[in-house]
Amino acid sequence: MPRSFTIKVPCSSANIGPGFDVVGLALSIWLELRVRVDETVSGVPQNCEITYEGEGAKDLPREADSNLITRTALYVLKCHDIRSFPATTFVHIINPIPLGRGLGSSGAAVVAGVMLANAVGQFGLSKERMMDYCLMIERHPDNVTAAMMGGFVGSYLRELDPIDMERKEIPLSEVLPEPAGGLDTGLRPPEPPYGIGHHIKFGWAKEVKAIAIIPNFELSTANSRSVLPKMYSAKDMIFNLQRLAVLTTALTRSPPDADLIYQAMQDKVHQPYRKTLIPGLTEILASVTPKSHPGLLGICLSGAGPTILALATHNFDTIAAEILARFSKEGVECAWKVLEPAYNGAEYIE
Question: How far is CA 153 from the centre of its chain?
C-alpha cells in the first residue's frame, strides 16, 4: 500500500548580532514536504518525482539529482548503499521561506532532505544522528541546528578530515540555485562521523517575538561572506564575546531588559563589513532603539542578510514602519512578518 507523510522544517535566523556562526533561532515560517511513496509506480528517474510551489518555484530544479532537498536525500541514501529512492517517491514541496534573504532557506532544505531520506529508507535515525549528515553538507551549524532542533540554540563543530570534505559525492548547500556536489561517482560517499556538531538550547522569554523585515532582493551567503576580513583585532573579538555571553541569558529573562539586550546585540565582526551590500544598513540598524520605539529589544542583520531582524515585545507595526521607511529611502521595497520561535524544530508527521 502507498504510504504518505509530511515533513515540516522551520526557517531560521543566524548570528542574532554578536553570535556570528555560533547561535541560531528557529522561526515560524515552515518549509513543507508532502510525500507519497508508491511501490506500484515505476519508470520515474531516480524513483523520485518533484512538484513545487512557493518561493523559487520558477527557478529551482525539479530533477532529483539537482534539487538540493532530494540531492541531500540521495547522499544519505547512498551512505546506506542505496543508489536511488527505494520506491517511487512523489515529493510536493511547499516553500514560503524567501530564498537568499538570510532566513536559512538552504539550511531548511538540507534538514528536509536528510529527514526525507531517513523516512523513505526507514533508517530510524535520531535527530542527533541526522544532524551529522546535515553538517557534512552545510558546514555552518547555526541555521541547520536551529532548524532541526528548534528554539534558540548555540552550536560548534569538530574539525573533519579535509580530504573527506572534498569528496564530490557530498552535496554543497551554498551555491543555490545551481547544483554542486552530490555527484554519483559510483563510490559510496563518506559517512559522517558521530557527533560532528554539538549544541545547547537556550531559554527564550515568552514575551519576545521577532519582526522580520525582508527586502525584495537576494544576497547569497557566498557574496556576503566575501566582504568579511580574514583576520580580526582582539578588541573586536572581545567586544562580540562579551555581548554574546550576556545575550544568551538576557533573552531568557522575563520580563526582558530592553536596554541590556539592545547593547548585547551589537556586533563588530560581520555587520559593519556587510553595509556595502545592503543599502542603508548602518542607518537602519541605528534607526530604532528601546527609547525611540518602546517594545523594541534589539535589532540585527538576519544571517548573511539582507533581512533585518528586530526583537520586540509589542509595538510591532510602528517598529516595522520605521525600518520600512528607511529602506524605502534607499529605493528598496520590503515585506515584513511577526514571527515566533519554532520551539520543536523539524517535524515528521505520519
Answer: 12
Q: Would strands 3-15 and 334-339 be described as parallel, antiparallel, or unpaired?
A: unpaired
* Burial of residue 333 (number of CB atoms within 10 Å: 0-12, 13-18, 19+): exposed
Decide if 195 contacts 143 (C-beta within 8 A). Answer: no
**pLDDT score for 34:** 98
Cα–Cα distance measured from residue 176 to residue 63, given in angstroms and rounded to the nearest whole number: 14
CA 218 to mean position of chain CA atoms: 15
**Ramachandran sector of residue 104 (left: φ over 0; alpha: ψ -120 to 50; beta: rest):** left
Q: What is the pLDDT of residues 126-174, one digit of tens each?
A: 999 999 999 988 878 999 999 999 999 999 988 776 665 555 556 655 4
From the list 49, 27, 14, the residue with the least C-alpha distance to 97 is 27
- Cell numbers 532566513 correspond to what residue? 103
On the question of pLDDT at 81 being above 90, the answer is yes
β-pairing, 209-215 vs 334-339, is: antiparallel
Percent of the chain with pLDDT over 90: 81
Count of residues in the chain: 350
Residues 6+ apart with CB under 8 A from 32: 6, 7, 8, 9, 93, 94, 95
What is the 3-state composition of the chain as percent helix, strand, coil, each rounded to the nearest 5? 30, 25, 45
- Residues 48-68 pLDDT 10s: 999 999 999 998 999 998 899
The phi-psi region of residue 27 (left if phi > 0; otherwise alpha if psi is between -120 and 50; otherwise beta) is beta
Question: What pLDDT digit, counting tens, does each position of 22-58 carry?
Answer: 999 999 999 999 999 998 888 888 999 999 999 999 9
Report the DSSP beta bridge partners of residue 90. Answer: 36, 49
**Pairing relationship of beta strands 48-54 and 88-95 according to DSSP bridges:** parallel
Contact criterion met (CB below 8 Å) for 9 and 103:
no
